[in-house]
Amino acid sequence: MTNAPTMQLWSAEEAAPAEAAGQPTGPGARALKPLPADALIIIPLRGAVLFPGGLSPLAVGRASSIAAAQHAVKSEAPVGFLLQRDPQKDEVRPEDLYWVGTTGPIVRYLTGQEGAHHLVVQGQTRFRVLEFLEGWPFLVARVARVAQPQDQGPEVEARFLQLKEKAVEVIGLLPQAPDELAAVVRGIESPAVLADMVANLLDAKNEQKQDILETFDLVRRLDKVLGLLSARAEVLRLSKEIGDKTRAQFDERQREHVLREQLRQIQKELGEGEEGAAEAEELGRAIAAAGLPEDVLKNAQRDLRRLQRMGEGGAEASMLRTYLEWLTELPWKTAAPVPVDLAQARQVLDADHFGLDKVKRRIVEYLAVRKLNPTGKSPILCFVGPPGVGKTSLGQSIAKATGRVFQRVALGGVHDEAEIRGHRRTYIGALPGNILQAMRRAGTSNAVLMLDEIDKLGAGGFHGDPASALLEVLDPEQNSRFRDNYLAVDFDLSRVLFLCTANVLDTIPGPLRDRMEVIHLPGYTEDEKIQIARRYLVHRQLEANGLQPGQAELSDAALAAIVRDYTREAGVRNLEREIGASLRHAAVRIAEGRDEAVRIDAPELAAILGPRRYDNELALRSGLPGVATGLAWTPVGGDILFIEASKVPGSGRLILTGQLGEVMKESAQAALTLAKLETGEALDKVDVHVHVPAGATPKDGPSAGVAMYLALVSLLSGRAVRPDVAMTGEISLRGLVLPIGGVKEKTLAALRAGIRTVMIPRRNEKDLEDVPADARAQLNIVLLDRVEDAVRYAVGETAAS
Ligand SMILES: Nc1ncnc2c1ncn2[C@@H]1O[C@H](COP(=O)(O)OP(=O)(O)OP(=O)(O)O)[C@@H](O)[C@H]1O
Ligand SMILES: [Mg+2]
């Protein structure tokens, strides 16, 4: 198909500007990095929309477009053509372009006289831009191609026939149209192809053509093309009637009037017109009622008028409507401050959570300060601790205690500023960022917003660093004028009570951490867990499984067994799950018609929950020479770790396995050197193999030094390490035991694993203060100055087999 000159003649870009004409090779001659597989070179079009199937001549003038075209021809790279919003603009940036276009190989490239560059391109496939990439001297974007719809059926068929008829009619009205054109149109079999062909040839505004290009749904696309073509036919007929030979005398305004009239007619038939008016009225009311600040109100009213003028349908109208809906649904009005009753707040906190006295006290203090000075700069509370220790639920409690609405903003995996602050409205499918989304859900300006998993925030993305956007959100100096890219007007966040949660502190970006007051929730001891289960979890699970309190019961021994044998965690999330599983078992019995209460005791657990999950590891592993139990700190709250050493015939090498990091390898080397000294073994006929099994997590850090040392001494001396002892500590080559971190988490992990003696560096003695008293009471703590202390205490005298 060729361009029919009688129907339309356009030049995509005006002639090349003089300065570009002088450099025919352009920057495209340099070696460039290859394009990703789903990327296209983008050439912006000033005055034309390319459709699939259309063969179009284009003149390119801009240096970057020339470079793009030349690079594409040379490397046979695919090219995408996008219409620019403002044809006058020379420097185009992604937001200046429509994000839906057509790919097209360049089938001809001609350099004409006076250095003008001409392309002939063959439109191929629609595509939608996913993102623009940087690093090339022209525009490059990652795209998703959109296949032509294959829809059939009466809906499509009817419109297809109508369109064909209309097209033939219009061709007949054009005196200069070649006769074959009508035959070509009659021969087309695909509705999608016909729609695109007509749209391509049609004399319509570029915005209208772009709208058709962006209409992926075939029925709607056919309707739009039919609408435009009918209007065109009308114009041609009218112009004939007034005895005019061409449309030249029809000025823009008349033409537009006729088009509008047509459009209204079509809308009326489709029943869209009135609906649109009612909708606009409703929007108008919402705008008036939303409590918008004066300047925002003015903008909104102006946008509404624009929307009304624009009529229904069309990508821009729906964009504007969505925007106005967002605007009106945000909580602009300042909610009346709720007086904080401290006694009641304390009561709520106590009612929702067991223990955590220090944490609750700190929260009440925080609320007291806010009460006395509501507008003052209070720090942002950040709950830090392993999963399932109650961070999120404390946040909910705070909201309840202060009579506010609670909303969560998940930050895990957020790596682009746009997720916090939104995309500009000109992006296809743009929305506000997750802060304003949460505000809309909250529906009130003084909500509690919990920024969950702030430690999992990703590093900066294409649109900027999310951490810096969050800084602005949390800064009381700035957050009364928070600007979301989508909203593009200031929004006041200063009444929001922000809270954060994190599993670990050190991945929180420094400037953010500085703004927060950290509250640690290290995890619970066995006793605390049983209490939490008794008072909260069992009730909750009874209710969740449709049971009355009298109908099922878990004995104390059963709860203790679940804590000890079926879960190993710092928090209580799995505990709650296992309680739920046990109670479901009871629910089945009750549902089957049993009327006395189902009582679940420890011995029944194996039948309900399966074999115990965590009991015998210690017994299996320890008791052999060469095995020692270490303690590791992990983001989920500490764990025990077995170090296994063995001897194989060889030549004195140290073999390390089990995903060990560099630091841990060095401490193994140091431990071996020390162990050789201690035992006086020569070891040139054997290789020593050290393995740290369990868990696919990479292990690193120096704190396993003492355990490695003991494993090696035990191996070389043939004496087993006492199985009920676990240890942590770094070692120096002179045999000193050096302090480590995470004492609290490690001791709690040891208790969970059934260990009663923990050896820690003497210089960590002060950290024992943080270990809960009931845990301390169950533990025998051995303080180490030198590695020999550890050997003396933990390595038995009797040689094992
Ligand atoms: N001290 C406690 N008293 C009563 N219930 C508790 C206590 N601690 C935690 N829970 C309960 O344990 C469950 C898990 O808590 P929550 O969801 O708040 O954990 P989290 O610390 O936010 O974990 P994550 O880091 O995985 O998000 C909740 O149902 C919570 O009510
Ligand atoms: Mg949580």
- In total, how many beta strands? 28
Oligomerization? single chain
Overall morphology: elongated
Query: What structural category do the secondary elements indicate?
Result: alpha/beta
Q: Calculate the mean pLDDT score and round it.
A: 83
* Spatial separation of the terminal alpha carbons: 90 Å
Radius of gyration: 37 Å
Task: Name every ligand kind in the structure.
Answer: adenosine-5'-triphosphate, magnesium ion
Helix content: 40-55%
Unreliable runs: 1-29, 244-250
What do these coordinates show?
- This protein has 801 residues and is an alpha/beta fold.
- It has 28 helices and 28 strands.
- Strands 20-21-19-18-23-26-27 form a 7-stranded mixed sheet. Strands 1-3-4-7-8 form a 5-stranded mixed β-barrel.
- Strand 18 (627-632) and strand 19 (639-649) form a beta hairpin.
- Helix 5 packs across helix 7 (218-241).
- The longest helix is centred in the first third of the chain and has 24 residues, at 218-241.
- It starts with 17 loop residues before the first helix and ends with a strand.
- The model is unreliable at 1-29 and 244-250 (pLDDT under 50).
- Magnesium ion (MG) is lined by residues 391-392, 452, 501.
- Adenosine-5'-triphosphate binds at residues 353-356, 387-393, 501, 503, 532, 536, 571-573, 576.
